[in-house]
């Protein structure tokens, strides 16, 4: 979602100016008539318009201020304190919480889980999403139906999708055994095995999300200029060369959108982790986001949770920052 | 077989494989929800459901699904309505009203998209408990009732409307509320539908906030109720658990089938442009 914003900001401002010009009516044939109306009433009318503006945006502004911006400030303060969230007040401890996090080896494991999970989802989304989009772009009968079924899991609750996959991963009676059995492979214990739990999480998560990625890529593919492909054909370029030299580079803004939304998504994932693994076995699938929940609401350690949340926030800011710069440089050449 | 023919055969094989990959698990979900325990606990499985609808009754008995449904409906209807109203009012104000530095204010509000939910979790819980809203509908709804993305989509849409029509209505002496209601909103209908549906999906599926802010079984929403059902049934009754899963998933699947175009446009619309 953030990409959207960044990618469009340029045209945004131009549009806003246009609208301002339209409403204030500066210049153009109507301006003399309007100037005549200026007078004692003018300022009263303008004040009325200002108050109406404030009235209209204030409910939204109040909610966003209270539940989006205030938390950033207060969370930053909490990360410098120790507090059990129940009684007493936060006690200032300086950078202690951050120090504890960075020196704890289990936290290193959690960071590694987060990065592994995120990287697997990003790579999986880009590769599989693009492959699906290329398939959906062919004129095949029934592609509309397949596209619909592939997109459907994206709007189903993560808790429901995860519960379904929990059953699929049942080593004795699940669908995974049905699929693996003909190949003579015994089903792993998936979510109950520390070596397999993260893989299980990645599979279920990708199944829920790649239909969406495919649709995004498909929209990108359908926007590519026809002429380039005709030119490439005339030059005798093969399918693979055309794909590598034309399609991939032209799709790079879409790829970046997918990259950033995937990273943001995995960094905020709760529902599928909660249902599939609960962060376990042990810490095997505990990511940064799950750690924040656990510390805050299970271990009642507001300081540690807040420090981990700040860390996560900074990582995401860097990612979105990079994306904004990249998109500004690159998006225009399409 | 010619190369072109072979290519088509391979493409169709790929399409069928992808179709199975997505239909398979979904079929597994719905058929299991309708299977007798005896048919679930055997290998190889019986593929056809035995129309054992008792699974649903059993899920309903094991967990108060009636409460979950009522809670999800109230939270979704209330939350999505307020979100939509907020998106509309804010977008209209930013496009059609004058205010000093309004574009700066807009960007500041848009910046809220950068704040991840992890950062807001703890503080919002503290705020809501100070307001005395823990385990109430207010606590479930209000923190999510602001609209940033919806406001953005609607504002972009309103900017494309022909300014003359609004100007003409103003010259006729119509006030802003009337212009909004009678002129602008009817023209924004497709985008209003999109924004409204996205809000509904978001509220219905929300997980982590309802998990934190409610603390009795009776106040849980459906996704949390499903977690509760699994913890009471363990792994011993997949039929009932799949029935519960169907109850959580089906309303959104139906909504998706009805409003597929609006949903895809809203979710992907921002991604690709030009």
**Biggest chain-to-chain interface with counts:** A-B, 114 and 109 residues
- Annotated CATH architecture of one domain in chain B: Orthogonal Bundle
DSSP strand content of chain A: under 5%
- The whole-number mean of residue pLDDT values of chain B reads 89
Number of helices of chain A: 15
CATH architecture annotation name of chain A: Orthogonal Bundle
Task: State the CATH topology of one domain in chain B.
Answer: MetI-like fold
Class by SSE composition of chain B:
mainly alpha
How does the major sheet of chain B shape up? none
Describe the model:
- The complex is a heterodimer of chains A (334) and B (274).
- Chain A is mainly α and 334 residues long.
- Chain A has one domain: MetI-like (MetI-like fold, Orthogonal Bundle).
- Chain A contains 15 helices and two strands.
- A two-stranded antiparallel ribbon of chain A has the order 1-2.
- In chain A, helix 1 crosses helix 15, helix 5 packs across helix 12 and helix 6 crosses helix 9.
- The radius of gyration of chain A is 26 Å and the shape is globular.
- Chain A starts with a helix and ends with a helix.
- Chain B has a domain of 170 residues: Orthogonal Bundle (MetI-like fold), CATH 1.10.3720.10.
- Chain B is 74% helix and 0% strand.
- Chain B starts with a helix and ends in a 5-residue tail after the last helix.
- The chains are: A mainly alpha (334), B mainly alpha (274).
- Chains A and B meet through helix 1, helix 3, helix 6, helix 7 and helix 8 of A and helix 1, helix 4, helix 5, helix 6 and helix 8 of B.
């Amino acid at each position: 979602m953030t990409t959207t914003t960044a990618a469009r900001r340029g045209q945004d401002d131009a549009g806003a100016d246009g609208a301002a010009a339209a409403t204030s009516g500066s210049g153009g044939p109507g301006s003399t008539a309007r100037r005549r109306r200026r007078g004692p009433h003018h300022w009263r009318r303008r004040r009325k318009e200002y108050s109406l503006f404030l009235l209209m945006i204030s409910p939204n502004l109040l909610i966003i201020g209270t539940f989006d911006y205030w938390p950033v400030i207060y969370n930053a303060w909490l990360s410098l304190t120790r507090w059990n969230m129940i009684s007493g007040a936060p006690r200032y401890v300086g950078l202690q919480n951050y120090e504890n996090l960075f020196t704890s080896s289990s936290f290193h494991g959690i960071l590694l889980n987060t990065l592994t999970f995120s990287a697997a989802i990003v790579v999986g989304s880009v590769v599989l999403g693009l492959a699906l989009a290329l398939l959906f772009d062919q004129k095949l009968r029934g592609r509309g139906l397949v596209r619909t079924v592939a997109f459907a899991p994206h709007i189903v609750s993560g808790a429901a999708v995860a519960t379904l996959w929990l059953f699929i991963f049942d080593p004795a009676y699940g669908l995974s055994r049905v699929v693996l059995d003909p190949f003579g492979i015994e089903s792993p214990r998936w979510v109950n095995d520390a070596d397999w739990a993260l893989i299980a999480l990645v599979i279920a998560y990708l199944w829920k999300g790649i239909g969406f990625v495919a649709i995004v890529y498909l929209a990108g593919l359908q926007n590519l200029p026809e002429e380039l492909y005709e030119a490439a054909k005339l030059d005798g370029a093969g399918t693979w060369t055309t794909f590598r030299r034309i399609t991939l580079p032209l799709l790079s803004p879409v790829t970046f959108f997918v990259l950033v939304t995937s990273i943001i998504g995995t960094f905020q994932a709760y529902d599928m982790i909660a249902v599939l693994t609960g962060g376990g076995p042990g810490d095997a699938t505990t990511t940064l986001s799950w750690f924040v929940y656990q510390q805050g609401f299970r271990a009642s350690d507001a300081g540690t949770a807040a420090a981990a949340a700040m860390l996560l926030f900074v990582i995401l800011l860097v990612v979105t920052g990079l994306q904004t710069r990249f998109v500004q440089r690159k998006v225009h050449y399409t | 077989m010619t190369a072109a023919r072979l290519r088509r055969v391979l493409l169709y094989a790929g399409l069928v494989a992808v179709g199975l990959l997505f239909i398979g698990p979904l079929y597994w979900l719905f058929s299991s929800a309708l299977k007798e325990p005896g048919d679930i606990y055997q290998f190889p499985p019986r593929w056809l459901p035995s129309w054992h609808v008792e699974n649903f009754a059993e899920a309903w008995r094991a967990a108060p699904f009636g409460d979950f449904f009522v809670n999800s409906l109230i939270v979704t209807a209330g939350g999505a309505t307020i979100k939509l109203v907020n998106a509309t009012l804010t977008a209209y104000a930013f496009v059609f009203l004058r205010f000093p530095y309004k574009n700066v204010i807009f960007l500041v509000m848009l910046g809220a998209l950068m704040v991840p939910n992890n950062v807001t979790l703890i503080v919002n819980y503290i705020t809501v408990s100070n307001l005395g809203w823990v385990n109430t509908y207010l606590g479930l709804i209000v923190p999510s009732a602001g609209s940033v993305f919806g406001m953005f989509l609607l504002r972009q849409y309103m900017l494309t409307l022909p300014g003359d029509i609004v100007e003409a209505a103003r010259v006729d002496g119509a006030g802003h509320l009337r212009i909004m209601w009678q002129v602008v909103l009817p023209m924004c209908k497709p985008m209003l539908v999109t924004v409204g549906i996205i809000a509904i999906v978001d509220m219905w599926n929300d997980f982590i906030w309802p998990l934190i802010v409610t603390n009795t079984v009776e106040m849980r929403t459906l996704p949390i109720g499903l977690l509760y059902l699994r913890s009471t049934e363990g792994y011993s009754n997949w039929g009932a658990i799949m029935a519960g899963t169907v109850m959580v998933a089906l309303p959104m699947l139906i909504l998706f089938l009805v409003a597929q175009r609006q949903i895809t446009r809203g979710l992907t619309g921002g991604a690709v442009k030009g």
